[in-house]
Design a protein that fits this description.
There is one protein chain. The chain is 0% helix and 55% strand. The chain has strands at residues 31-40, 45-54, 60-66, 71-72, 76-85, 91-99, 104-110, 115-118, 121-124, 127-130, 135-144, 148-157, 165-174. The strands form 3 sheets. Strands 4, 6, 8, 9, 10, 12 and 13 form a 7-stranded mixed sheet that branches. A 4-stranded antiparallel sheet has the order 3-5-11-7, with no helix packed on it. It has a two-stranded antiparallel sheet with strand order 1-2.
């Protein structure tokens, strides 16, 4: 290897003989790249090229924590949800859906997009794009209405995912009696 070229000296090949050489390269950035191969001999010349497109991927990390756990019946618990794109390409149409356990009632939500609430399900409108390395923060607050060891569930979908990512956070709701 020298000056951006890899050279093999194959010596003399007999009539109808062939040999193979190979090259492995590692992409360091996204883009379209062309690799050109040339073969020269005393009696012949040939060339060819191959084009490779290097694409990135979005790699969405979903995290959820509760702030106060444990809480007494009647108190409000806040769940903080962080969605991080750990990949090299933009994540698109990211939808976060939260499910409250039966022992909790919805109080409020906050995030980069508006939410809708149907019974115990909170769905945030799609986040159009999340750049590589960027994070989006959401929060859902709910009041404990009954005792129990409950699970707050979060599900995330995006255009790049074939199955949703899921996370749950345990919260203990106790009686002060």
């Amino acid at each position: 290897y020298a000056d951006g070229k890899v050279t093999w000296n194959l010596g003399t090949l007999a009539v109808n003989d062939s040999t193979e050489v190979g090259l492995t390269i590692e992409a360091t950035r996204m883009g379209t790249f062309t690799n050109t191969a040339e073969a020269t001999a005393l009696c012949a010349e040939a060339s060819g090229e191959a084009t490779t497109e290097v694409r990135g991927i979005s790699a969405i990390l979903l995290e959820c924590i509760d702030v106060e756990d444990p809480i007494p019946v009647g108190a409000v618990e806040t769940y903080r949800i962080t969605v991080t794109n750990q990949g090299s390409a933009v994540g698109t149409n990211i939808v976060v859906t939260c499910m409250l356990p039966a022992q909790m009632e919805f109080v409020r939500a906050d995030g980069p997009t508006d939410e809708t609430v149907q019974e115990r399900t909170i769905t945030f409108a799609p986040l159009e794009a999340l750049a590589p390395g960027a994070a989006a923060n959401y929060s859902v607050s709910a009041r404990g209405t009954d005792t129990g060891d409950v699970r707050f569930r979060v599900m995330l979908r995006s255009d790049q995912m074939t199955t949703p990512a899921e996370e749950s956070e345990a919260t203990h709701i106790y009686s002060e009696d």
